[in-house]
Prior knowledge:
heterodimer, A: alpha+beta, Alpha-Beta Plaits, 3-stranded antiparallel sheet, 6 helices, B: two-stranded antiparallel ribbon, 13 helices, iron (chain A), 4Fe-4S (chain A)
Amino acid sequence: xxxxxxxxxxxxxxxxxxxxxxxxxxxxxxxxxxxxxxxxxxxxxxxxxxxxxxxxxxxxxxxxxxxxxxxxxxxxxxxxxxxxxxxxxxxxxxxxxxxxxxxxxxxxxxxxxxxxxxxxxxxxxxxxxxxxxxxxxxxxxxxxxxxxxxxxxxxxxxxxxxxxxxxxxxxxxxxxxxxx
Amino acid sequence: xxxxxxxxxxxxxxxxxxxxxxxxxxxxxxxxxxxxxxxxxxxxxxxxxxxxxxxxxxxxxxxxxxxxxxxxxxxxxxxxxxxxxxxxxxxxxxxxxxxxxxxxxxxxxxxxxxxxxxxxxxxxxxxxxxxxxxxxxxxxxxxxxxxxxxxxxxxxxxxxxxxxxxxxxxxxxxxxxxxxxxxxxxxxxxxxxxxxxxxxxxxxxxxxxxxxxxxxxxxxxxxxxxxxxxxxxxxxxxxxxxxxxxxxxxxxxxxxxxxxxxxxxxxxxxxxxxxxxxxxxxxxxxxxxxxxxxxxxxxxxxxxxxxxxxxxxxxxxxxxxxxxxxxxxxxxxxxxxxxxxxxxxxxxx
Lengths: 180, 349
């Protein structure tokens, strides 16, 4: 068997450069066939997702906006060790540590906490290495399922603790789930 | 001539103008919607419910755009281009019979702006002037691409006008009249003497040639070489902006509407529908004719849809394919059609 007769996929088609007959050169048959193909698409299901109303389902491991977690008592996990900042390949994370004062035990879990914690979302590549590096289970990208919203100024993309820390209500909900 | 007829015609022309504009406006939305549907998308759906206000939004955008004038010596011609394009598209509507007649307060109102007996010649004359809009605009733009587009458009128009005229000769031979009103009236009803009365069943080849040439005359795909973006940027409207650009685009849709109307009237029985005579006898002239106008608009809408359907199905022709199709296929076919029609007329009489 010669090579030109083999068709492994079964879809092989001979191309020819033969002269068109009169009817072919009127293109009418070909156009009619094409019209029949397109009219079928008129009645097919549309693939568009109407974005703000409908959202594409995200995978369970989708890495979206970061979240600084609180524990079951609502205390911030982060101790400002800087491991995430070291791990970050894009140099997106900065922080400033501070010492916990007496009376703040319900706010921060350890004696040291992040006074300022900022992620530059324009630098961030959402690789998830900070999440992997964190020894305190403090930073997660897979929890929020939120895409970083657009903004018109560069400064607006530097997210501080106000946007990153898990809301207290959510921590309370977690606590209730744990108890029940 | 009494003054009532002037008022009557005035109102009628205004109504036709408004309807043409309305149809052209919503053709732009229909085009985008049909394009989307044929490609499994939804299309514009933000302005109004289901995108119903999209044409207004587009118009508003065009009005708000900067009016740019290229450094050309021919500012007059530059403005004249879109004006001709638009007015020629609208002028054809003067001889189109939108219905037979209405009886309002004892007066018989003929639903046609003017019933001239050389209406077919008039349509051809106006259609061929339409290309001047593109030619003048392309020339005055002082831009190589625009000029090239203008040349393509005019040579295409000349080539296809021949075939179009020859196709229509066969029809005129059979109907024996140049009046569009007369041709429409001859297709009355649907079935007569053992054959359909509509011309498309009597002259299928003539219809086919006329249809292909209509695509070429309105510069629609597959004959839109004049504005092929890949090679000529925007073709003749490269240098146009704001509402002058809008006029070109709008004129094109108006031309498409009118061309669909001509197709429907010459070949698809105009305002006639099966049972037209019965409706006149039983329901009265007015009801029958209003139904007739609706029937005509259904036919027109079908042709507009057909134009768009073809546009989103096939790519545009290469230039040599276009010329081969025009000169080597359509013209011989049209001549053969004339000979066959002549033989049939001689043999049946």
